[in-house]
Amino acid sequence: MSLYDKFVANKRLRRAVLLVVVIVLFYLFRSMLSLFLLTFIFTFLSVQLVRAVQKHFKLKPMWIIAPTYILIIALLVFAVTNYIPQLVHQSVKIVNSLTQFYQSKEVRDNQYLAYVYDYLQQINLDNQIKTFASQLVNYVSSVGATGVNIFLSFILSFFYTSQVDEMNQFGRQFLNSNYSWLFDDIRYYGQKFINTFGVVIEAQLMIAVVNTVLTTITLIVMQMPGVIALAAMVFFLSLIPVAGVIISLIPLSFVAYSVDGLKYVVYIIVMVIVIHMIETYFLNPKFMSSMTHLPIFFTFVILIVSEELLGTWGLIVGIPIFVFFLDILGVHQIGGKKKPKMRPWKFKKS
Predict the structure, then answer these.
(1) Where do the domains of the chain lie?
(2) pTM higher than 0.90, yes or no?
(3) What secondary structure, in 3-state letters, does the chain show?
(4) For an engineered disulfide with 314, which of 71, 106, 108, 307 has Cβ 3.0 to 4.6 Å away?
(5) What is the pLDDT of residues 41-85, one digit of tens each?
């Protein structure tokens, strides 16, 4: 038996080599990471929608996905023309009001806030705000590139989902090729990736939407300023597992104190605690039933490391990627039942 035949016969070794090769390729093409991740997320959600509708109505994917994407585009145009200007205006207003508030005599005369004020003076908050503003300008200047990635991901996901059955049929042909072992291993990792990464991202999006709706309703009832900007902030922070809710408490508390003192801060803290309990005892068991429930320590360590390696994307995809590797290692769930499998793209050898 030749060395090649021995390598092909050793399934565990060849799959380990393939995984290393894939990781190296993603590292080499790391500048396109946003495009890869956005395309996968859009495609995964679209395919899930198509399969859910097809359970009740025998329709071709094109008849399902085309109206959906048209509706999404219409909503985006409406949001950009009506709410984006308000979002920018409210964000600038909140930053200015917080800066004025922290520099006000009321803060310096308050014995409890005096320590906070002295600390902010020590870290030179004024310069930090100016630095943040300059970074924000640089980020806005790069929105064009981000917009191109989103547009390309959107288009690619549409083409894939509209022909998902044809794509599956085309993919099966590789399983009968001369290098069927290679494509069978790719299929294996693809299914693992969908069963973990895709499902976790979908669940986190649902949790973020629910958290944002509950928070927005509370902010409206409290008559807080800049609700649109605060709601947008809460949504993006809610995409960060566990830590997002805690991080959002800091700016919300500052805005609440500037509105009506400690009373509103207490209201905000109670709101965050209630939402966190809803997320912990209702949303996570409902949406995250297929996810390995990690201890809080591991969650924060993964977020810190993934942010260092992948930047902002790491805060969102760090946990799903870690769960993906746990699934490959056979660690299906820590202290629980083995997770169910979801396979929206299921390939079978013919």
Answers:
(1) 3-329
(2) no
(3) CCHHHHHHHCHHHHHHHHHHHHHHHHHHCHHHHHHHHHHHHHHHHHHHHHHHHHCCCCCCHHHHHHHHHHHHHHHHHHHHHHCHHHHHHHHHHHHHHHHHHHHCHHHHHCHHHHHHHHHHHHCCHHHHHHHHHHHHHHHHHCHHHHHHHHHHHHHHHHHHHHCHHHHHHHHHHHCCCCCHHHHHHHHHHHHHHHHHHHHHHHHHHHHHHHHHHHHHHHHHHCCCCCHHHHHHHHHHHHCCCCHHHHHHHHHHHHHHHHHHHHHHHHHHHHHHHHHHHHHHHHHHHHHCCCCCCCCHHHHHHHHHHHHHHHCHHHHHHHHHHHHHHHHHHCCCCCCCCCCCCCCCCCCCCC
(4) 307
(5) 899 889 989 988 998 888 899 999 999 999 988 888 887 787 667
